[in-house]
Amino acid sequence: MQPLPKKYDFSEIERKWQQKWEEMGIYRFDWNDAKRTPFTIDTPPPYPSGEFHMGNILNWTYFDIVARYKRMRGYNVLFPQGWDCHGLSIEIQVEKEHKIRKRDVPPDQFRGWCEQLIERYIAIMKDSILKLGCSIDWTTEYRTMDPDYWRRTQLSFILLHKKGYMYQGTHPVNWCPRCETAIADAEVDYEKRQGALHYIRFPLEGSKEHLLIATSRPEFIPACVAVEVNPEDERFKKYIGRKIVVPIVNRAVTIIGDEAVDPDFGTGVVQICTYGDKEDVKTVMKHKLPVITILTENGRITENGGKYAGLTVNQARKAIVEDLSAAGLLEKTETLMQEVGVCDRCKSHVEILERKQWFMKTRALTDQVEKTANEVVWYPDYMKTRLIDWTKSLDWDWVISRQRVFATPIPVWYCKNCGELILAEEKWVPIDPKLENPHIDKCPKCGGTAFTPEHDVFDTWMDSSITCAVHAGWPDREDWHRLFPADVHPSGIDIIRTWAYYLMVRHLALFNETPYKSCLINGMVLGSDGRKMSKSLKNYVAAPEVLGKYGSDATRQWAAGGGATGSDIPFRWPDVEYGRRFLVKLWNVSKFAIKLLEGYAPSETVEFELQPLDKWVLSKAEKLTQKVTDALEKCQFNIAVEEIRNFTWHALCDCYVEAVKDRLYRPETHGEAKRAAAQHALYEVLYRVLQLLSPVTPHLTEEIYQAMYADYKGYKSLQLSPWPEFNQALADDQAEEHGDLIIAVIGEVRREKAEKRLPLNTQIKKLTVYAGDQKTAEIIKEGNVDIAGTCKVSNLEVLAKKGSGKTLSEYPEVTFTAEYEG
Ligand SMILES: [Zn+2]
Ligand SMILES: [Zn+2]
After folding, report:
1. Hey, how many other C-beta atoms are within 10 angstroms of the C-beta on 364?
2. 273: DSSP letter
3. 743 C-alpha to center of ligand 1: Å?
4. Measured in angstroms, how far is the CA atom of residue 181 from the centroid of ligand 1?
5. What is the 421 CA–ligand 2 centroid distance (Å)?
6. Dihedral angle computed from the Cα positions of residues 593, 595, 596 and 601, in that order, rounded to the nearest 10 degrees
7. How far away, in angstroms, is 85 Cα from ligand 1 center?
8. What does the buried/exposed string (b/e) look like for 30-39 if buried means 16 or more CB atoms within 10 Å of the residue's CB?
9. Taking the CB of residue 390, how many other CB atoms lie within 10 A of it?
10. How many CB atoms lie within 10 A of CB 169?
């Protein structure tokens, strides 16, 4: 056994082991190992944002605990790491940084800038992942912006196109006018914003009457194609079928009836415009109404807006309201709090535009997604309803094309002569159709030889939603199915609708199989004030600050122990501080144990005589093993951490070590066999604590293991030691009951010394314990070595009868009297 340094210096220890583990290569997945069962973690490749925040700490701690635990359980663990590069937010940041719009510079230059920014961001985030001590196999690192990764995205598109899952269509899509691209439902956030509800008179054709329409979007009036009322609404049903005049443009449209109209909202009369919102889209389709395009791709009013053409949405709204008011058609305006859809990257108001796009037929898979979600194991279980509810709520197929630059190209061309679509062949990818022609001589349909490339690119989720197959080695490894489906897909609660969902539909469509067997969900990190952590709320804490101040092992305890898996977890400095104090306690007890165990050489042949407290602590360690194993199997990390910390702090440090010190120090009084028993129990129980704790706090446990155990246990790293099996033979309820009683006697005697302000080592001339009955007396007598040793008793007498003196708080029948020296 080697001594530990005096002071627990986490930064030195953590840095040292992170480097050594990497050198040892112990986290590498062994692709050639046919013996161990593989266990694959579908690590989500994060968007490089240049910041590893506390939410990321929470995620990666979860992933890493699972990885380390499974490795110790004997699995060949694949814990990969990629980077999902093609984010819209990267384009926005590059535009800001270079003060340009993406269309102002050649695409190659723009892409280059994006790649440079990504590399800077990856470096920052990787640094935090390394400092957190994640046991990632870095030989697997990949970037979705690399052509070798595109190849997989493009190949999956080609296969899905051949299977009939991909189609082009002119369909309304969510559109961000600031980013000038289509976006998916999952990229639309909802925010409460204050708006105004305008009450506008629409005159009935050929009549002096009018109907009042309440709308928050008067700028869409030029695109009004119908007016709608509920057919059950007694006030208005008589107007159905009649014509009404749209103000401003003076065009007559028909009044239609539809049950979707809520008679209680606004005035009960609704204008249908193309397109004010998703309801308009449904109504237009259902009633086969014409479409008047009112917005351009950059959010301005089109020619169809007449005199308002060229204005922005806000300018047009203001002008139209003024004109309505001047014409006497504006009855009143009220303020209105409304939920508006905003672009999740730039927070601009999302509009609905009709545009030719690529879609994946995802709604066709809804039943299969539901069925599969029910077969997957969810931690916690109730999270599966989030995926099921989301898939059922979708009105539209997934729009997979984007009008961006920094993204995977769609491998498609069109014949210039006849318009025929040329899909890349599987062996052509990776390919950028804007830089290369299709590898064919002529159009198969008309024989034309000129082609135009597809300028649209893929949604980023097209890259990242095939990770389960990619991590397994698809399409290059023949044996990729050995690692597919992934054993666990870990995901944040906020991205179930994207990550978990897109993975599911992509893999179901491609392989007709679930991508993952289980789904581990983490909640959000809240600020210390209980609100979502955010820079604007001033409750934000940066991860590097926490890691710098307290180190990884303390921070990981916060993440693992902060709350039930799947629930939101507040960040509180005192929780991290508590984690650090626990580590210092473990450090100190280990140092003390090294001293107590001086000269001890663990061996099978040493004879020892277990005392009740040895059996007590050994039994408790077995029960702890069972509880921690059970908790980790269910991904209940907080329970595992609490159990280990409680046991270590109380049973091991406060009770056991205190009670056996004397036996360890004075073999001449108690005998070698009794000392050897305490040595054995202390050595093995501390080892058990280190093992159980090692998935959560890998660095400190490794440091102690190397000093105290490596020579005897023989594993190169604690991380390579097999997870302890619960040993029924050592789990002994009776020994625990007896030990509890002995611990209570010791505790109460020590308490009396403290109350009398006597030093704990004050010698007791005579201690008389009144057990109350014969059986209790015998149990206490069994512990007399440790009671006398710990309490410094010269003469210990245990009597079966009832007596006087101080009462044991938990055993009211048992009392004692002590005569002190001096
Ligand atoms: Zn945007
Ligand atoms: Zn052609």
Report:
1. 13
2. E
3. 65
4. 8
5. 8
6. 90
7. 17
8. eeeeeeeebb
9. 18
10. 12
Handedness of CA 41, 46, 50, 51 (dihedral sign): negative
The whole-angstrom separation of Cα 156 and Cα 408 is 12
pLDDT in tens, 122-153: 999 999 999 999 999 999 999 999 999 999 99
Per residue in 268-327, pLDDT (tens digit) is: 999 999 998 888 998 998 999 999 999 999 999 999 999 999 999 999 999 999 999 999
Residues in the chain: 822
Ligand nearest to the Cα of 451, by number: 2
What's at 181, amino acid-wise? T
DSSP 3-state assignment of 108? helix
Q: What is the pTM of this model?
A: 0.89
- Closest ligand to C-alpha of residue 447 is 2
- The torsion angles phi and psi of 636, rounded to 5 degrees, stand at -95, 75
Note the Cα 418 to chain centre separation in Å.
49
User: Residues with beta carbon < 5 A to ion ligand 2?
Assistant: 415, 417-418, 420, 443, 445-446, 448
648 DSSP 8-state letter? I
Q: Where are the beta strands (DSSP E) in 420-559?
A: 421-423, 451-453, 457-458, 489-492, 518-522, 525-526
Say which ligand is closest to the CA of 445.
Answer: 2
Q: b or e along 128-158 (b: 16 or more beta carbons within 10 Å of the residue's beta carbon)?
A: bbbbbbbbbbbebebbbbeeebbbbbbbbbb
Phi/psi of residue 39, nearest 5 degrees: -135, 120
Q: Compare 52 and 603 and report the one with higher pLDDT.
A: 52
Give me ligand 1 centre to Cα 178, in Å: 5
Q: Per-residue DSSP letters for 82-105?
A: EE----HHHHHHHHHHHTS-GGGS
Reduce the secondary structure of 119-163 to three states and give it as a string. HHHHHHHHHHHHHCCCCCCHHHCEECCCHHHHHHHHHHHHHHHHC
Centre of ligand 1 to C-alpha 345, Å, is: 5
Structure tokens at 729: 């033979």
The ligand placed nearest to the CA atom of residue 180 is 1
The per-residue pLDDT for 187 is: 86
- What token pair was written down for 821? 């020296």
Could you give the CA distance from residue 544 to residue 501 in angstroms, rounded to a whole number? 31
Residue 87: per-residue pLDDT: 81
Q: How many CA atoms lie within 13 A of 667 on its CB side?
A: 16
Yes or no: say if 268 and 230 are a contact pair by the CB < 8 Å rule: yes
- pLDDT tens-place string over residues 387-397: 999 999 998 89
| Cα angle for residues 683, 686, 691 (degrees, 5° grid) | 120
CA of 761 to the centre of ligand 2 (A): 99
Fill in the DSSP letter of residue 605. T
Residue 211's beta-bridge partner residues? Answer: 202
The answer to whether the bond into 275 is cis (omega within 30° of 0) is yes
E-strand spans in 151-250? 166-176, 181-183, 188-203, 210-215, 224-229, 243-246
Ligand nearest the Cα of residue 178 is 1
| Distance from the alpha carbon of residue 408 to the mean position of ligand 2, in angstroms | 25
- Rounded-to-integer distance, Cα 73 and Cα 60, Å: 20
Whole-angstrom distance, CA of residue 682 vs CA of residue 790: 16
Nearest-CA neighbor of 636 among 487, 500, 521, 488?
A: 521
Closest ligand (CA of 438):
2
Determine the distance separating the centroid of ligand 1 and the alpha carbon of 350, expressed in angstroms.
Answer: 8
